[in-house]
């Protein structure tokens, strides 16, 4: 009994390490809700297997191998198929847009003002009035861009020439045009397409990544040529 339990423990240890290595290492702050649920299910599989004498080592190996394969395939699918990734992992949500709180999205995601304020305080922001943009990330964290007048002293304050902060939304990812990568922010896709052609790109699939800024500028990263890198 003790020998079989020891074997199961060793297999579980290296099996979990292998799953984390194969499916991609993430910190706790990077885990999506789907990642969290997957971890819970995996812990149940391993925990129930360890102390059930009717479940053999071969059963444990099979369960870990199958779960690893499923996790790997799902991870690759969310990476390869951009739109599927947004469906599976969710989209970022613009809760505060240019100083205006989107109360409809707060209600949709069951976020009260006191919760929003708590999340802002963790970003060293103690008043909604200071916020220009606030984005709810897919992992549940909040990213904040303050209004210029509430930012700490900068190079501009010291008389150095600077440019204003730029807020941008992803519009192309891996050659696919994303009409709504951020909830709460609408982008004129016709303007985006016109800017793409203006910059000399005839085929969107030649673009690896592009973001459209609130200043009307489109920043494009072309796909690397095969054989490089």
Structural write-up:
The chain has helices at residues 2-23, 33-50, 57-80, 82-89, 103-108, 113-121, 189-198; strands at residues 92-97, 100-101, 131-136, 142-146, 168-173, 176-177, 182-183, 207-213, 218-222. With 229 residues, the chain is an alpha+beta fold. The longest helix has 24 residues, at 57-80. The model has no long low-confidence stretch (mean pLDDT 77).
Order of secondary-structure elements: HHHHEEHHEEEEEHEE
Gyration radius from CA atoms, angstroms: 23 Å
Helix content: 40-55%
Low-confidence parts lasting 5 or more residues at pLDDT below 50?
A: none
Report on the biggest sheet.
5 strands, mixed
End-to-end span in angstroms?
52 Å
Mean pLDDT: 77
Class by SSE composition? alpha+beta
Number of strands: 9
Strand content: 15-25%
Q: What would you call the shape?
A: extended
Number of helices: 7
Short characterization:
The protein is an alpha+beta fold and 229 residues long.
Tag the structure with descriptive keywords.
single chain, 229 residues, alpha+beta, five-stranded mixed beta sheet, four-stranded antiparallel beta sheet, 9 strands
Q: Layout of helices and strands, plus pairs?
A:
Elements: H1 2-23, H2 33-50, H3 57-80, H4 82-89, E1 92-97, E2 100-101, H5 103-108, H6 113-121, E3 131-136, E4 142-146, E5 168-173, E6 176-177, E7 182-183, H7 189-198, E8 207-213, E9 218-222
Parallel strand pairs: 1-7
Antiparallel strand pairs: 1-2, 1-3, 3-4, 5-6, 5-8, 8-9
Helix pairs in contact: 1-3, 2-3, 3-4
């Amino acid at each position: 009994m003790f020998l079989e339990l020891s074997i199961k423990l060793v297999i579980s240890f290296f099996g979990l390490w292998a799953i984390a290595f194969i499916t991609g290492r993430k910190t706790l702050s990077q885990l999506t809700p789907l990642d969290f649920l997957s971890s819970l299910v995996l812990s149940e599989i391993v925990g129930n297997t360890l102390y059930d004498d009717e479940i053999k080592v071969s059963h444990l190996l099979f369960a870990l191998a199958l779960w690893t394969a499923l996790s790997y395939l799902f991870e690759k699918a969310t990476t390869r198929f951009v739109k599927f990734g947004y469906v599976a992992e969710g989209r970022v949500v613009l809760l505060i847009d240019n100083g205006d709180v989107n109360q409809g999205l707060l209600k949709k995601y069951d976020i009260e003002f006191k919760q929003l304020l708590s999340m802002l305080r963790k970003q060293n922001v103690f008043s909604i009035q200071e916020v220009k943009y606030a984005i709810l990330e897919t992992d549940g964290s909040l990213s904040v861009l303050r209004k210029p007048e509430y930012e700490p002293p900068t190079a501009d304050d010291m008389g150095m020439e600077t440019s204003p902060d730029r807020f941008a939304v992803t519009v192309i990812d891996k050659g696919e045009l994303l009409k709504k990568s951020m909830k709460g922010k609408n982008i004129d896709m016709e303007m985006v397409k016109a800017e793409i052609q203006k910059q000399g790109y005839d085929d969107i699939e030649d673009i690896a990544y592009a973001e459209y800024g609130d200043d009307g500028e489109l920043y494009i990263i072309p796909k690397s040529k095969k054989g490089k890198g």
